[in-house]
Every structure is written in C-alpha cells, then in structure tokens.
Amino acid sequence: MTERESAADIEAAAARWVVRADRGDLDPAELEAWLAGDTRRQGAFVRAQAAWGLLDRGRALGVEETPQRPRVDRRGLLAGLGLAAAACVAVIVAPRLLAARYGTAVGEIRRVPLADGSLAAINTDTALEVAMKPRRREVRLDRGEAWFQVAKDAERPFVVESGPVRVRAVGTAFSVRRRDGGCEVLVTEGVVEVWSEGAGEAPRRVTAGERVFASDSAGAARPVPASLEITRELAWREGQIVLDGEAFGAAAEEFNRYNARKIVIADPALAEQKLVGWFRTNEPESFARAAAASFGARVTVRGDAILVQSVAPLAE
Amino acid sequence: MSEGRARVVAWIGREILPHEADLRAWLRRAFATAGDVDDIVQETYCRLAGLSHVDHIGEPRAYLFQAARSVALEQLRRARVVRIDTVTEIDALNIELDEPSPERIAGGRRELERVRRLIAALPDRCRRIFEMRKIEGLPQREIARRMGVTENVVENESVRGLRAILAALAEGETEETAAARRPSTHDRTRKRR
C-alpha cells in the first residue's frame, strides 16, 4: 500500500486546482481523475472553491456584507440571569455576609451562576462555599472539583482556597480539583496565581492551556503545557468522559467518581488495555459493556459492583 | 460549474466556512489528534459537496456539526476502538449547540472581518493580485500583463494567498485552537506490565 496522502498536501493541491480553474487553464478530465482518487480531495476542493468564492466581489473585502442570522448567545443570557439573580440576592440578604454553600452528591454536576456574574461548574461529590466580600471574592473548596469562569473585577480578586493551596484570579477561567496532599489546577483562559500558604514559595503564574499541581506542604510545581488534556479532562462540565488512549483501569476510576455503582476490574492485565471513546459520566454499565466487548471480556453486575473479568486469560 | 453546484459552493462559503474553526475545536476536544481532525474536516466537506440543494437546511451550523460527527464516528469505528453508542447523536449535538459556553463561539461576521484583515496583510504582490482579481474582476492573464509577470507567477501567488486564507479559517482566533494546532506534546507513557 502506498503511503496515505496527508491532509495538508491535499489542501495545497486543492488550492492549486481552484486557481487553475479560475485561470481557465484546466483539463476537466484531469481534475476529475484527481478528485476520484480520494473522498478527502473532493472535500478539500469544495472547501477551497468556497473560500475562493467568498472573496468574490469583495464580500470579504468589505464592499458588501451578507446579513448574518442573529444568534441567541446563551452565555450572555446566562450571565444576564446571574446578574439578575445577584440583584435579587443583594436586596434580600445584603445585610448578612453573602456566603453560600454548594454541595453536589455523587454523580451530580451543577452549573451555578455566582452573585458577581461569575459561573461555577461543580463536579461530582464536591463541597464549595462562596463568600462575596467587599474586597475579595472567596471560594472554599473542601472536597471535589470545580471550574470557574470569573467575571472581571480588578478591585475584587477571586481567590479559591483549598486547604493551604490558593488560586488567585482577576478575570479568567480555571478549575481546581482537590486531591490527596494538594490540588490540581487547570487554566482554560487568562492567568492565575497559585501558591500554598505556609510553603514559603512565591506564587506561580499559570496561563491558559497549562496545568499545575500545588502540594499542600511544598506549594506549586512548575506549570506544564497541556491544552489538549485540559479540554478532555474538563469534559465533565458537559457530563462526559472523553478517553484518548487512557488505560481501562484509570478510566474506570474516573467513572467511579461519579457513581455509587463501582466498576471493578478483576484482572490487572485487562486494566492496562487502552481505550478511545466518548461516554456519559452516569452510564458506567454501558461503558463497562462497551469496553468489555472490545477486549473480549465479560460483565457481571452484583449489587453495587460492575465486575469486568477476562473470559480467557489474556495472552502475555 | 453547474448552477446547482455553484449555489452549494456559495452556501458553503457563506454559511459553513465561518464555523470551521469552532468545528475543529470541538472535534479536537473529542478526538484528540490533530491529524485525524484534518481528515474528518475534509471528509465532512466532501459530504456537503454531495448535496444537490441546500434550501432545506435551516441551521447550517448544526448541520455541519452533525455531518462531522457522523464522519468522526465512522472513523472511530474503523479504527479498533470502543463503540460510542452511549452518547446519542442528538445529545452530543445539543450540548455543543446550546452550551458551547466554556469556550466561546466565533461569530460569522467576525470571521469575515478576519479574512479581510488577512488579505490586507498578504505580501504586497499577492494582495495586489487578489484585489485586481476579486475587486476589479480582471482575469489572471490580464493581471499578469499589467504587472509585467508571467501567468504562472500570478497563479502561484494566488495559490499562496488562498492557502493563507484557508489556514486562517481553520485556525479561528481562540488561544485554545492556536495552542492545539502546535505539534502535540502530550506523552502517553504509562507503566507497562
């Protein structure tokens, strides 16, 4: 078999065909033959044609603009609701300190608009307390994981506390997950500062697309770039688990965070198998069955356990 | 180009291209290697190219995502992987369509403005050729004559400009997509038995 043509090569060739067609220097049979070679070529060609046409008569050059269909901006709507909620809350409870507790049960994922217009997505089995103080927005994460999209307010920094670990932001988006001995921080927008009280280290700056682990005792490690992992790891905000080559064992642990019915893998060799796929957090059994089907394993459900075992021992 | 085909191509330019960067970001979230994403996108355009008419498509963005999703699923099934029957087509689609909230959606208008800026930023000769071809409507041969270069030079410059614009449409403007297009560095070294 010849080596598969890369998408980039196809794109370059498609652009050439489009320009040649425009020049009038084209043998249609030759083009047909090229197109017939691969369906991706047909796609690349129509795409290049469309882009070329987009420039016609200056549609993109500003001579005329096609009217765009107005689109409902859900996010704006959500932020608006958050502000409206903030207004109500302020009227009713302003005299008291604005602290609110949010908890999620195992398997529950909540999106909560906060009083300042920020948004919190709270993952399974999490305890969170939010206090909107005049000079500081304080969030305490006792357990679990949450992602925050922080409304900009330079006067009032937004600080997440989890044990001695601190994550400070002004207007940005990031998640914090409590683990044994420290916190995992993933940044999706902007910049945050991470440190641990008492560790005696200067705060670390962590920027969008980076992750960092902050140990309770030693403070934040060096941030590492991980934008692909971050988008996958935050799929829980949509109630999903996205796997790209993770081991079955690690994936099962991830499901077990969300469900009372735990996946138990009877065979260590099975736990090493790699998976790709896209699942709902609350469907551990379909996940287990899908995985088992692909490895030739068997699933037995006993009470609160979903047991996965090899039908025959795996060949070493 | 037949009239029907011309209409489909124009529709793709107007209604589909502006959403391509979002589509890629979305695909990347689920199917993490960028090489696959390029393939999926080309296959998706191939399906759109096969449409005989487009008047029945009320939500081009949704249609695009749906088409890409089915291409992606097909590719996953062809590779030896776990089935993904736990997420129904419509479910996953709705998530993207009404809650893209974590990462913002680029509006079509903004994309067009980018294309305009991009043309302005092309190297002089390349930009001049685009202007003569697209605004003044001169054929390539005439452009070559006026500029005192060969037709091949005009062709090469046009290809270069078109590719730059295609690349910009693919990338969109988010930091996330810019970062994700860099060569993947995430390693998967896991302990082997």
From TrEMBL, chain A:
The keyword Transmembrane helix applies. Residues 101-193 form the FecR protein domain. The chain crosses the membrane at residues 77-98. Keywords: Membrane, Transmembrane, Transmembrane helix. One of its GO terms (molecular function) is sigma factor antagonist activity. InterPro entries: FecR, Ferrdict_sens_TM. This is Iron dicitrate transport regulator FecR. It comes from Caulobacter zeae. The lineage of its organism: Bacteria, Pseudomonadati, Pseudomonadota, Alphaproteobacteria, Caulobacterales.
UniProtKB/TrEMBL annotation, chain B:
Residues 113-164 form the RNA polymerase sigma factor 70 region 4 type domain. Pfam families: Sigma70_r2 (PF04542), Sigma70_r4_2 (PF08281). GO terms for biological process: DNA-templated transcription initiation. InterPro entries: RNA_pol_sigma-70-like (IPR039425), RNA_pol_sigma-70_dom (IPR014284), RNA_pol_sigma70_r2 (IPR007627), RNA_pol_sigma70_r4_t2 (IPR013249), RNA_pol_sigma_r2 (IPR013325), RNA_pol_sigma_r3/r4-like (IPR013324), WH-like_DNA-bd_sf (IPR036388). Residues 19-80 form the RNA polymerase sigma-70 region domain. Residues 172-193 are annotated as: Disordered. The keyword Transcription regulation applies. Keywords: Sigma factor, Transcription, Transcription regulation. GO terms for molecular function: DNA binding; sigma factor activity. SUPFAM superfamilies: Sigma2 domain of RNA polymerase sigma factors (SSF88946), Sigma3 and sigma4 domains of RNA polymerase sigma factors (SSF88659). NCBIfam families: sigma70-ECF. Belongs to the sigma-70 factor family. ECF subfamily. This is RNA polymerase subunit sigma-24. The lineage of its organism: Bacteria, Pseudomonadati, Pseudomonadota, Alphaproteobacteria, Caulobacterales.
